[in-house]
Amino acid sequence: MVPRARPGGGMHAAKLCALRRDTVAVPLVPLSTTGLSVEQLGEMENKAKQTILLLDDEIFVLLDLEDAVQAAGHSAMLVGDVPTALTSIAHERIDGAILDISLAGTTCIDVARALEERHIPFIFYTGEASPLPEAFGRLRADVLRKPQSPRDVVGAALVVMETDARSGGDG
Predict the structure, then answer these.
(1) How far apart are CA 153 and CA 145, in angstroms?
(2) First and final CA of the chain: distance in angstroms?
(3) Can you list the alpha helix ranges (DSSP code H) found in the chain?
(4) What's the pLDDT score for residue 139?
(5) What is the Cα–Cα distance from 134 to 11, expressed in whole angstroms?
(6) How many alpha carbons fall within 13 Å on the CB side of residue 100?
């Protein structure tokens, strides 16, 4: 099958055309932004496959993030709404998450709180205007503003997950 052109340019074969490419895990963010050495990033890549929950109500954002997660050698759990995310958190093994703040008339605050209660590291990836709603400011999570490269977003999430693991899961 031939990949379909996506709105906004580019090609996406992942879910749309059942076409996959072989990828090799590579550092996803510039070393200068992570504070980690090449050796430390290599250790992250060689660890067991981790599952990253991706919560967004925009399918193309989810698919782009999924590609980046898989390129990093991990698996993605795509979720488009809060109830499904909460069910996944309660019943699935999740090692980290990337959350959009605004989701079709609601927010991900309940999902963020559920992750925090379970000591699962997460970041926000949002187009939400500054400043964030007050409730989000109380959560211990980095905020990345849309648009950004999916590789950079996933790289930031992996750094947060690694930092969390090194600190014993205390955030």
Answers:
(1) 9
(2) 44
(3) 31-34, 38-46, 59-71, 82-91, 109-117, 134-137, 150-166
(4) 75
(5) 38
(6) 24
Which three-class secondary structure state does DSSP give residue 82?
helix
Q: Are 121 and 96 in contact (CB under 8 A)?
A: yes
DSSP H helices in 47-81: 59-71
pTM of the model: 0.70
> CB within 8 A of 34, min separation 6: which ones?
27, 41, 155, 159
How far lies 122's CA from each of 51, 71, 113, 116, 146, in Å? 12, 19, 10, 8, 16
CA-to-CA separations, 96 to 27, 65, 123, 156, in angstroms, rounded: 17, 13, 8, 11
| Alpha carbon distance 31, 41 (integer Å) | 9
Of 140, 114, 145, 112, the residue nearest 128 (C-alpha): 145
Q: CB-based contacts of 119: which residues, under 8 Å, 6+ apart?
A: 164, 169, 170, 171
pLDDT tens for residues 105-145?
888 999 999 999 999 999 989 887 666 666 666 777 888 88
pLDDT of 159 over the 60 cut: yes
